[in-house]
Amino acid sequence: MSENSNTARNKGTAMVTGASSGIGAVYADRLAGRGYDLILVARDAGRLETLAARLRASTGRKIEVLPADLTRAEQLAAVEARLSADPDISLLVNNAGISLRGGLLDNGPAELAGLIAINVTAPTILAAAAARAFASRRAGTIVNISSVLALAPEMFDGVYSGSKAYLLNLSLQLAGSLESLGVRVQAVLPGATRTEIWARSGKDVDAAMPGRVMETGDLVDAALTGLDRGEVVTIPPLADEALWITYDNARRALAPNLSRRQVADRYAFEVAA
Ligand SMILES: NC(=O)c1ccc[n+]([C@@H]2O[C@H](COP(=O)([O-])OP(=O)(O)OC[C@H]3O[C@@H](n4cnc5c(N)ncnc54)[C@H](OP(=O)(O)O)[C@@H]3O)[C@@H](O)[C@H]2O)c1
Fold first, then answer.
1. Which of 69, 90, 140, 230 has the fewest C-beta atoms lying within 10 Å of its C-beta?
2. How many domains does the chain fold into?
3. Is residue 16 a part of any domain in this protein?
């Protein structure tokens, strides 16, 4: 066994993006508690350092801070390079993300491209780097933080929900294709959760979702329970699991019918008499 192999005692290193606040900061706390060393990624180096110092003191784990703006190509490349080169990394939590002030009509190209850069491009590139590295070691886990809005586009603006649907789609395909290579993939679909993302995008979560806001600790603890259960898709607020299973089965039942040589009868071209 090599010096860098992840033994039962040493779970290896988890890289958590968006670890400076909200869901990412709680993942950092819980994963350090579970015995992972950490690499914490976000733009705010000060907040990352404060969290790292607290977790080093409380858990004794090795906690590294890797400040990066994941919308900047060269900084994203540095994080990607670390994922590719560090054999101790066993878990990637693709968590960093933003929401818009307003929707498609209220935002210009810079804001729209910025959301896609952090919610879609960055997690894709990091997932690819992690998948290649983990597959070469035949071990590792990728967690993508999607949203229940991936399933409910009518509830919110379509740019944000579309970015989260993208992550669900990516996760479902990767989970199936990477399983035989020893790589696990989980998509986590939070509902409204009490974090800064709401205020950062000019919203009041309690006004938007009165009485239906989950606390961040509960969300992350449930997501980790879902990971322990071996789930590919974890929806912490969904009480009736059968609803998801029914939906997923209906979606999968479409698949054999979605490519045919003939157009469906209802689209058949009729020559006017
Ligand atoms: N809260 C909810 O209701 C909810 C529901 C469903 C899904 N989610 C998803 O959960 C994830 C975490 O969000 P949150 O709710 O915990 O919100 P949050 O507290 O605002 O956290 C977002 C994190 O992303 C980081 N981040 C933002 N832009 C970045 C950039 N350009 N480069 C690097 N890091 C960046 C932020 O750190 P810096 O500012 O320091 O860079 C912060 O650590 C997101 O993907 C979000 O879409 C949230």
1. 230
2. 1
3. yes
203 as an active site residue: the answer is no
Of 16, 17, 21, the one to substitute when testing ligand 1's pocket (max ligand atoms within 8 A of C-beta) is 21
Q: Which two tokens stand for residue 260?
A: 């045919």
Separation of CA 204 from chain center = 23
User: Which one, of 236, 231, 133, 124, lies nearest residue 175 by Cα?
Assistant: 231
Q: For residues 217 and 23, what is the distance between their CA atoms, to the nearest angstrom?
A: 8
Q: What is the CATH number of the domain that holds 154?
A: 3.40.50.720
User: pLDDT tens for residues 91-134?
Assistant: 999 999 999 999 999 999 999 999 999 999 999 999 999 999 99
Domain membership flag for residue 253: no
Residues within a 6 A CB radius of ligand 1? 18-24, 42-44, 47, 68-71, 95-98, 118, 145, 147, 190, 192-193, 195-197, 200
